[in-house]
Write a structure and sequence with these properties.
The protein has helices spanning 11-23, 39-50, 75-88, 128-142, 160-169, 174-188, 192-201, 231-234, 240-243, 251-263, 287-294, 324-343, and strands at residues 2-8, 27-32, 60-66, 96-101, 108-114, 205-210, 217-224, 227-230, 271-273, 280-284. The chain is of the alpha+beta class. It has 2 domains: 2-155 and 160-167, BirA Bifunctional Protein, domain 2 (2-Layer Sandwich), CATH 3.30.930; 174-335, no CATH class. β7 and β8 form a beta hairpin.
Length: 348
């Protein structure tokens, strides 16, 4: 469920917008503690309480709650959910009206509430979007809805573009699929081999970023349906440093398991994906590259030789887009340059 919040000054504008939907038979009221009337009359009713805080400008709380395509709630359940939402957000003693719109394929409602309480106190808007997300996470569980965003402390939230795509297509974002599946697999895995096998059972291919000289694993990425995410881009919970704390990873013991997993890249198909800080579509490899990958004993075309650099183990070369660690180093260097420019007063 996606919540879009706007804090404003004018009740009339948002009420007129929703009443226009009603007049066009694309919306109706599902709950309210004010009298449903004309936009002018309802504005006057809201403003009566508003006068308890005459010097406050931004008193209008307007939120739309949007369900994914696969989720449905009848009017009563949606009104109950919205009531729980208002209570948890601190609007338990405030004027409100709820409209349900029918002009989109996904089900959604609009709530207009007065930040000024009947007592004259004010409902805070501090960190309101973060608080809203936490409340929606709980309501998704309570009402058995698809969980759209995880807790930001452990999982990376969807970008605005990913949210828009979710609402447009109705498909659960791959980022959320990976967060859910990998999170479950981490909790079930007793060791590295089980972790890899459970991932593959769920059609997720892990890719370890390994030092050529020491064999240490520096990072991990996940390939699902031809799209690849770095573990850290899914959230701290999915970074290799966190994962290895939960699966009994031991570098010397598991080195062969890790290398064998990476060396199966050429055997599972003719395509590989590019790793970046976000998802990327898989790209097609030439037959020559596939043959080089299959020949695990041969040096890759861009082989650096012994004791040079850190990157993927053979047969992948450092210039291959699969080299996530190289991209991390590049990003770290760019970050350092930005900081130096900022200290010098040159901006970004």
């Amino acid at each position: 469920m996606i919540g879009k919040i706007v804090i404003g000054k004018d009740f009339y504008g948002v009420l007129a917008y929703n009443e226009k939907k009603v007049s066009e038979e694309m919306g109706y009221v599902i709950d309210s503690n004010i009298e449903h009337s004309t936009s002018v009359n309802m504005t006057n009713e809201f403003n009566t309480i508003r006068q308890l805080r005459p010097n406050l400008g931004n008193v209008v709380f307007h939120v739309s709650l949007n369900l994914p395509y696969q989720d449905q709630l009848d009017d009563k359940r949606f009104a109950l959910l919205a009531g729980d939402y208002l209570t948890e957000m601190g609007f338990d003693d405030n004027q409100f009206i709820m409209y349900r719109h029918t002009d989109t394929k996904h089900e959604h409602i609009h709530i207009i509430a007065n930040r000024v309480r009947y007592s004259g106190k004010l409902t805070s808007d501090s960190n309101i979007k973060r608080r809203s997300r936490a409340v929606l996470n709980e309501l998704e569980l309570k009402y058995s809805l698809t969980q759209i965003l995880g807790k930001t402390s452990a999982k990376k939230s969807l970008t605005q573009e990913e949210i828009k795509k979710t609402l447009r297509t109705g498909n659960v974002p791959i980022k959320l699929v990976l967060q859910r599946e990998i999170g479950s697999i981490i909790s079930k895995s007793n060791n590295t081999l089980e972790f890899i096998e459970l991932l593959k059972t769920n059609s997720i291919s892990p890719r370890f970023n390994v030092s050529k000289t020491t064999g240490s694993v520096f990072g991990i990425s996940f390939d699902y349906q031809g799209i690849i995410y770095k573990g850290s881009s899914l959230g701290k919970k999915f970074s290799w440093n966190n994962i290895k704390k939960h699966i009994d990873y031991e570098q010397d013991r598991d080195r062969t398991i890790v290398l064998e997993n990476n060396n199966t890249i050429g055997e599972v198909g003719e395509t590989l994906g590019a790793i970046t800080n976000g998802p990327q579509r898989a790209f097609e490899m030439s037959k020559g590259n596939v043959e080089r990958i299959k020949n695990v004993d041969a040096k890759p075309e861009h082989h650096l030789g012994k004791n040079q650099g850190v990157g993927w183990v053979a047969p992948l070369g450092d210039n291959n887009p699969w080299n996530a660690f190289k991209l991390e180093l590049d990003e770290a260097e760019r970050s350092k340059r930005r900081k130096r420019r900022k200290r010098k007063g040159l901006g970004r």
